[in-house]
């Protein structure tokens, strides 16, 4: 899985992000998952017996390794980078990439570097004032076909966190809708 995780993360970094309105023709199920405003972790957990996190990377990332689009949504400064695989019943469902500026970590009550193997949504959505904005969607072509991804900014205690998620082939996002 490690080679494929690297491939997925590379594909996610090259996504062409667009507004959700440009995807109105997609299935209702997929669109509902991609535009979820609450905790993706909670929604995924409802689809399985056991949701787990495999941490791929949890490290400082220099500002020069962050894209211009990411800088626009955060700040031009060093960030903490957390990359994970979310697994439902041991099946890889989502690749997640999260960035938070080091200054925001130092000023706030939330330190992403200490997240460990707890899903991000479980922690950040326990804060009553968490909100999501700047939601964008992408279609990404992989060796398994076209997959969907989303990127958004979460505001936790007034500090931004940028989250990008690639929904893998076995994710419940792709479940067929009931007739």
TrEMBL record:
Role description: Removes the pyruvyl group from chorismate, with concomitant aromatization of the ring, to provide 4-hydroxybenzoate (4HB) for the ubiquinone pathway.
BP GO terms, sorted: pyruvate biosynthetic process; ubiquinone biosynthetic process
GO molecular function: chorismate lyase activity
Name of the protein in question: Probable chorismate pyruvate-lyase
Family: Belongs to the UbiC family.
Enzyme class: lyase
The EC number(s) this enzyme carries: 4.1.3.40
């Amino acid at each position: 899985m490690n080679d494929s995780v690297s491939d997925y993360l590379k594909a996610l970094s090259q996504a062409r992000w667009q507004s959700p309105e440009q995807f109105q023709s997609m299935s209702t199920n997929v669109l509902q998952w991609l535009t979820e405003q609450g905790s993706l972790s909670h929604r995924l957990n409802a689809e399985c017996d056991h949701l787990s996190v495999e941490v791929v990377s949890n490290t400082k990332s220099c500002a020069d390794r962050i894209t211009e689009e990411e800088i626009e949504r955060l700040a031009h400064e060093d960030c903490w980078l957390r990359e994970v695989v979310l697994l439902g019943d041991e099946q890889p469902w989502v690749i997640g990439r999260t960035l938070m500026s080091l200054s925001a970590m130092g000023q706030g009550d939330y330190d992403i570097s200490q997240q460990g193997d707890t899903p991000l949504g479980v922690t950040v959505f326990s804060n009553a004032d968490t909100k999501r904005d700047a939601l964008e969607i992408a279609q990404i072509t992989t060796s398994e076909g076209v997959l969907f991804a989303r990127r958004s900014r979460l505001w936790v205690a007034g500090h931004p966190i940028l989250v990008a998620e690639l929904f893998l082939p076995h994710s419940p996002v792709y479940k067929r809708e009931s007739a």
